[in-house]
Amino acid sequence: MSMPYAETLCGEMVMRSAPGRRHEIICARLHQYIRASVANLSSTRLLPPRTRISFRPDLALCPDLALVATANDRLWLAAEIVNSEDHRPDTVVKKQLYEEIRLPRLWMIDPRYDNVEVYHSSPYGLVLKGILAGRDVLTETLLPEFEIGIAKLFETPAV
Question: What are the residue ranges spanned by the domains of the chain?
Fold first, then answer.
Protein backbone atom coordinates (compact mmCIF):
# COMPACT_ATOMS: atom_id res chain seq x y z
CA MET A 1 0.00 0.00 0.00
CA SER A 2 1.24 3.49 -0.86
CA MET A 3 1.89 6.10 1.78
CA PRO A 4 1.76 9.89 1.67
CA TYR A 5 5.19 11.52 1.49
CA ALA A 6 6.75 14.96 1.93
CA GLU A 7 8.84 17.03 -0.44
CA THR A 8 10.53 20.37 0.18
CA LEU A 9 9.65 22.70 -2.66
CA CYS A 10 11.11 26.23 -2.57
CA GLY A 11 11.68 25.97 1.17
CA GLU A 12 8.16 24.78 1.93
CA MET A 13 7.34 21.27 3.16
CA VAL A 14 4.60 19.91 0.89
CA MET A 15 2.69 16.76 1.85
CA ARG A 16 1.88 14.68 -1.21
CA SER A 17 -1.03 12.27 -1.21
CA ALA A 18 -0.46 8.54 -1.45
CA PRO A 19 -0.27 7.44 -5.09
CA GLY A 20 -3.20 5.41 -6.37
CA ARG A 21 -3.23 1.83 -7.63
CA ARG A 22 -2.71 2.65 -11.34
CA HIS A 23 0.13 5.03 -10.49
CA GLU A 24 1.87 2.28 -8.52
CA ILE A 25 1.39 -0.30 -11.29
CA ILE A 26 3.01 2.07 -13.80
CA CYS A 27 5.80 2.87 -11.34
CA ALA A 28 6.53 -0.80 -10.65
CA ARG A 29 6.54 -1.66 -14.36
CA LEU A 30 8.88 1.23 -15.18
CA HIS A 31 11.25 0.20 -12.37
CA GLN A 32 11.20 -3.39 -13.60
CA TYR A 33 12.25 -2.40 -17.13
CA ILE A 34 14.84 0.14 -15.98
CA ARG A 35 16.29 -2.28 -13.40
CA ALA A 36 16.86 -4.86 -16.14
CA SER A 37 18.54 -2.30 -18.40
CA VAL A 38 20.95 -0.95 -15.75
CA ALA A 39 21.86 -4.34 -14.26
CA ASN A 40 25.12 -4.43 -16.24
CA LEU A 41 25.91 -0.70 -16.01
CA SER A 42 28.44 0.13 -13.33
CA SER A 43 28.02 3.86 -14.02
CA THR A 44 24.34 4.11 -13.03
CA ARG A 45 22.30 3.22 -9.97
CA LEU A 46 18.50 2.97 -9.74
CA LEU A 47 17.05 4.31 -6.48
CA PRO A 48 13.88 2.90 -4.89
CA PRO A 49 10.64 4.70 -5.81
CA ARG A 50 10.24 8.12 -4.20
CA THR A 51 13.66 8.16 -2.56
CA ARG A 52 14.10 11.62 -1.06
CA ILE A 53 16.92 13.47 -2.83
CA SER A 54 18.18 16.72 -1.30
CA PHE A 55 19.60 19.23 -3.74
CA ARG A 56 19.97 22.15 -1.33
CA PRO A 57 18.42 23.11 2.05
CA ASP A 58 15.23 24.44 0.44
CA LEU A 59 14.81 21.64 -2.12
CA ALA A 60 14.26 17.91 -1.61
CA LEU A 61 12.33 15.92 -4.21
CA CYS A 62 10.99 12.36 -4.29
CA PRO A 63 10.85 11.29 -7.95
CA ASP A 64 8.91 8.14 -8.81
CA LEU A 65 12.02 6.94 -10.60
CA ALA A 66 15.56 8.22 -10.11
CA LEU A 67 18.80 7.23 -11.79
CA VAL A 68 22.03 8.55 -10.32
CA ALA A 69 25.60 8.42 -11.55
CA THR A 70 27.60 6.09 -9.30
CA ALA A 71 30.71 8.28 -9.55
CA ASN A 72 29.14 11.30 -7.81
CA ASP A 73 25.57 10.27 -6.80
CA ARG A 74 24.23 13.00 -9.06
CA LEU A 75 20.69 12.56 -10.38
CA TRP A 76 20.71 12.39 -14.16
CA LEU A 77 17.26 10.99 -14.98
CA ALA A 78 14.03 11.48 -13.07
CA ALA A 79 10.57 10.24 -13.94
CA GLU A 80 7.45 11.74 -12.41
CA ILE A 81 4.15 9.91 -12.72
CA VAL A 82 1.52 12.61 -12.61
CA ASN A 83 -1.08 12.25 -9.88
CA SER A 84 -4.42 13.28 -11.41
CA GLU A 85 -5.71 14.57 -8.06
CA ASP A 86 -2.54 16.52 -7.23
CA HIS A 87 -0.93 17.27 -10.59
CA ARG A 88 0.29 20.89 -10.23
CA PRO A 89 3.37 20.03 -8.09
CA ASP A 90 4.54 17.55 -10.76
CA THR A 91 3.55 19.30 -13.98
CA VAL A 92 4.46 22.87 -13.04
CA VAL A 93 6.47 23.27 -9.83
CA LYS A 94 8.76 20.24 -9.99
CA LYS A 95 9.38 20.59 -13.71
CA GLN A 96 10.61 24.15 -13.09
CA LEU A 97 12.79 22.97 -10.19
CA TYR A 98 14.32 20.18 -12.29
CA GLU A 99 15.11 22.82 -14.88
CA GLU A 100 16.79 25.03 -12.25
CA ILE A 101 19.05 22.19 -11.09
CA ARG A 102 19.84 21.36 -14.73
CA LEU A 103 18.60 17.79 -14.63
CA PRO A 104 19.88 16.10 -17.81
CA ARG A 105 16.76 13.98 -18.44
CA LEU A 106 13.14 14.17 -17.26
CA TRP A 107 10.17 11.97 -18.11
CA MET A 108 6.72 13.27 -17.22
CA ILE A 109 4.45 10.22 -17.30
CA ASP A 110 0.79 11.16 -17.44
CA PRO A 111 -1.78 8.39 -16.79
CA ARG A 112 -4.59 10.90 -17.45
CA TYR A 113 -3.71 10.85 -21.15
CA ASP A 114 -1.51 7.72 -21.34
CA ASN A 115 1.44 9.68 -22.64
CA VAL A 116 5.05 10.46 -21.74
CA GLU A 117 6.73 13.82 -22.24
CA VAL A 118 10.50 13.46 -22.71
CA TYR A 119 12.69 16.43 -21.77
CA HIS A 120 16.42 16.93 -22.23
CA SER A 121 18.53 19.63 -20.62
CA SER A 122 19.92 22.38 -22.82
CA PRO A 123 21.77 25.64 -22.13
CA TYR A 124 18.33 27.27 -22.19
CA GLY A 125 16.60 24.88 -19.80
CA LEU A 126 14.57 21.72 -20.34
CA VAL A 127 13.59 21.13 -23.95
CA LEU A 128 10.63 18.94 -24.90
CA LYS A 129 12.05 16.24 -27.18
CA GLY A 130 8.77 14.47 -27.77
CA ILE A 131 5.40 13.34 -26.51
CA LEU A 132 5.02 9.58 -26.76
CA ALA A 133 1.68 7.77 -26.84
CA GLY A 134 -0.04 4.72 -28.32
CA ARG A 135 2.41 2.61 -30.31
CA ASP A 136 5.44 4.78 -29.58
CA VAL A 137 8.39 3.32 -27.70
CA LEU A 138 10.20 5.02 -24.81
CA THR A 139 13.99 4.71 -25.12
CA GLU A 140 17.02 6.52 -23.75
CA THR A 141 20.34 6.72 -25.61
CA LEU A 142 22.25 6.65 -22.30
CA LEU A 143 20.53 3.32 -21.47
CA PRO A 144 21.16 1.27 -24.61
CA GLU A 145 19.28 -1.79 -23.33
CA PHE A 146 16.17 0.12 -22.24
CA GLU A 147 12.95 0.28 -24.19
CA ILE A 148 9.29 -0.04 -23.31
CA GLY A 149 6.25 0.42 -25.48
CA ILE A 150 3.96 3.18 -24.26
CA ALA A 151 0.94 0.88 -24.53
CA LYS A 152 2.77 -1.66 -22.35
CA LEU A 153 3.73 1.00 -19.80
CA PHE A 154 0.09 2.03 -19.32
CA GLU A 155 -1.43 -1.45 -19.66
CA THR A 156 -3.90 -2.30 -16.91
CA PRO A 157 -3.46 -5.85 -15.66
CA ALA A 158 -6.45 -8.17 -15.71
CA VAL A 159 -7.97 -8.60 -12.27
Answer: 5-154
Nearest Cα to Cα of residue 112 among 151, 71, 83, 79:
83
Under the banding of pLDDT at 50, 70 and 90, the label for residue 79 is very high
Using an 8 Å Cβ cutoff, are 149 and 155 in contact? no
Question: Could you tell me the pTM of the whole model?
Answer: 0.94
With left for phi above 0 and alpha for psi between -120 and 50, is residue 54 left, alpha or beta?
Answer: beta
5-154 CATH fold: tt1808, chain A (3.90.1570)
Q: How many CB atoms lie within 10 A of CB 67?
A: 24
pLDDT at position 141 is: 95
Which of 17, 72, 74, 92 lies closest to 50 in space, CA to CA?
17
Cα(122)–Cα(118) distance, rounded to whole angstroms? 13
Task: Give, as one character, the DSSP assignment of residue 124.
Answer: T
- Confidence (pLDDT) at 157: 79
